[in-house]
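Thread: Newbie trying to understand structure tokens

Hi all, I'm a second-year student working on a class project, and my supervisor (Dr. K.) asked me to get a predicted structure for one chain before our next meeting. I've only ever worked with sequences, so writing a 3D structure as a token string is new to me. If someone could post the tokens and maybe explain what I'm looking at, I'd be very grateful. Here's the chain:
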Amino acid sequence: MAHLPTGDTTTVCGCDRTGCLQAAASDLALVERARSAGLRDCPDSLTVVSRALAGDALADTLLRERLRLVARAAALLVDALNPELVLLTEPSVALSENYLALFRQELATFSNVTRAPERVRFPHAGRDLMRVAAGTAALAPLFRDPLRFRMPADSVPHGSGPAS
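---
Reply by user tm_fold:
Sure, no problem. This is what the structure looks like when written as tokens:
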């Protein structure tokens, strides 16, 4: 997905093309754009989000542009896969209904399949999303069949299990 086209023709990707999703809309790209635009005190993307939510017009413009780029790439996936639900993990969407509304609007504009904005949601885990996602992947075999689940014998460090 890193090389899905976003329509951004200015950001050069490591693959030597322009407009790839990763190069144009990643957290690193957001921070670099913020710094280039004069927001020197933005060490990470969450700082850009915080500044935008605090009313910084430049940070807000940068977030809105990022959402437009992500929506354009997401529209390609939605058109190809036609999912019932699109979960958007962008932090700004978790903190502002306005950003979620913008993403929904942009997705509907670029998608040939969906015009249903309610298909786009932020996961219920909120700010703990990445921790929950990691735990979900690790626990998936247990959740799938809890009565038959067994840890592989070689995955338990010696001396950490019950005494024999």
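A couple of things are worth pointing out once you decode it. The longest strand covers residues 86-87. The chain has one domain: 21-144. Feel free to ask follow-ups in this thread.
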